[in-house]
Design a protein that fits this description.
Helices cover about 15% and strands about 25% of the residues. It is an alpha+beta fold and about 475 residues long.
């Protein structure tokens, strides 16, 4: 894994007195750490050559109520976490989600800005990964302090564990395997005298021909800067609406520059601020942009292979912007798995048959959706081995069946989970119509109908996971979730 990184600034951190926590994203800046020599080089290559990508990129918008946290998992398992939820739960929902998805290390922790509803779990996440898991690679911060207890706890954790901390500005990039991560903001000098929202770290993730804009709490001034600086280079497949869907963000000019295929809003169902605001939803509606809301869709996961984006949610709720509130609320921390709803291709958005029904743990649901190549189906999942999972790995297994009429040559096909743990099927493995193939997690001698992953620890998450199967040429042929 490549953990080298580029940043133009070394963040100067200042110990702050403990004061009352400021709720929401409306507090004025308190202090401005010194920053120098920001890069003026504009990111985003203007070249018109077709983009390519190997492997998949996952972007998880975690349901954290009136807050935001986004997990990005690269094709090689590298991880990037943007924000950590609200201060009132100390990152509990984020940590539970990360553990549920088998995330053992945070390679890049990005703080979009230092308001307490975005860094609420920073201290807890740093403490957990530095003491109980495989650590934090580096932290990226816009460099504008906040006089809150939450911010102090964040800096205390950075200092206690000696985590590398970069002040990050427009023109920086974060190395991330097959995916390009460009930092579009904040600029040098800061906007609006150092207002925290208006100087959010804004990222554009580009994976093949697909892309994602993560806009933090950028409001009208930073959006105007972004449109002026980058223009149509902002164009992306997915836009996370700024500032939880506040009317101060997601202005018409910015939406038009990004021109997203879908939008995502992260806020509470009963938001005390009324997020998402009607004006924002109407802007999306006027442009016919389907919108996903963590409050009614739950956890939202986009999986890109570089050409197609699979959209997966915990609940099948309305996506017409003006009908979002017709969906039922999903409580933060709900641990159901996600199911595929639509696929976004180069020129169209296609609904998945049967709504991508979720699959219960222990066996495939007849209503579940599996993309198949000639009839490959997931017949059974036994994720919860008897006794200690780690000591009984061969009681954890998945069973595939050829439900088609032609034999399948599975040579070189890849089986993977949501954490991108991968197993490549050996050459010469074929599956006749009606036959099944069992893949055990542990070690053993392969036979025609039984294969052994050889993993040293459990693969399939007991609380829910997704089984992916990809051909040797990289074509996704099966995607099925269970809970």
């Amino acid at each position: 894994m490549n953990r080298s990184r580029r940043a133009s600034h070394a963040l100067v951190v200042v110990a702050l007195a403990v004061v009352i926590v400021l709720a929401g994203c409306t507090g004025a800046p308190v202090s401005d750490p010194t920053a120098t020599d920001g890069s003026s080089e504009a990111p985003l290559d203007d070249a018109a050559e077709p983009a390519t990508a190997n492997g998949t990129l996952e972007v998880h918008y975690i349901n954290v109520g009136q807050s935001v946290s986004t997990l990005v998992v690269g094709s090689d398992g590298e991880t990037l976490l943007v924000d950590t939820g609200h201060y009132n739960d100390d990152g509990e929902h984020v940590l539970a989600y990360l553990r549920r998805h088998g995330i053992e290390r945070i390679d890049h922790l990005v703080t979009s800005h230092n308001d307490a509803d975005h860094i609420g779990g920073n201290g807890a996440v740093i403490d957990y990964y530095e003491t109980e898991a495989d650590g934090i690679g580096a932290i990226y911060d816009p460099g504008i302090a906040a006089s809150t207890r939450t911010y102090g706890e964040y800096l205390d954790a950075v200092e206690e564990h000696d985590v590398t901390l970069y002040e990050t500005r427009a023109g920086d990039t974060i190395p991330f395997g097959e995916t390009t991560v460009d930092v579009l903001g904040p600029p040098e000098p800061y906007l609006e005298g150092g207002d925290r929202n208006e100087n959010s770290i804004v990222l554009k993730l580009t994976h093949g021909d697909t892309s994602f804009v993560l806009s933090g709490d950028a409001e009208d001034d930073q959006e105007a800067y972004l449109v002026d600086e980058y223009g149509d280079r902002l164009r992306s497949t997915v836009l996370k609406a700024g500032h939880h869907g506040s009317s101060s963000s997601s202005g018409g000019a910015f939406i038009d520059a990004v021109n997203p295929r879908v939008a995502v809003v992260s806020s509470a169902y009963d938001s005390q601020y009324g997020h998402p605001h009607e004006e924002v939803l109407r802007r999306f509606a006027d442009r016919s942009i389907p919108t996903y809301w963590t409050a009614t869709h739950g956890d939202i996961v986009f999986v890109s292979d570089g050409a197609t984006v699979s959209v997966r949610t915990q609940r099948d709720a309305p996506t017409a912007p003006l009908a979002l509130r017709d969906g039922d609320p999903v409580e933060p921390g709900t641990s159901d798995g996600v199911a595929e709803r639509v696929q976004i291709t180069g020129d169209e958005t296609v609904a998945v048959a049967d709504g991508g029904s979720e699959t219960p743990e222990g066996g495939a649901d007849e209503g579940s959706t599996a993309e198949s190549d000639g009839g490959l189906e997931l017949a059974r999942v036994n994720a919860d081995a008897a006794g200690d999972d780690g000591a009984n790995l061969n009681d954890e297994y998945v069973v595939f069946e050829n439900a088609g009429s032609d034999a399948l040559d599975l040579s070189g096909w890849t089986v993977a989970d949501e954490a991108d743990k991968r197993y490549v099927i050996p050459d010469g493995v074929t599956l006749a119509p009606g036959e099944t193939l069992t893949l055990y997690t542990g070690s053993g001698a392969d036979t025609d109908r039984e294969l052994y992953w050889g993993a040293g620890s459990p693969v399939w998450n007991n609380a829910g996971d997704t089984v992916f199967v990809t051909t040797a040429t990289g074509e996704r042929v099966l995607t099925e979730s269970y809970e």
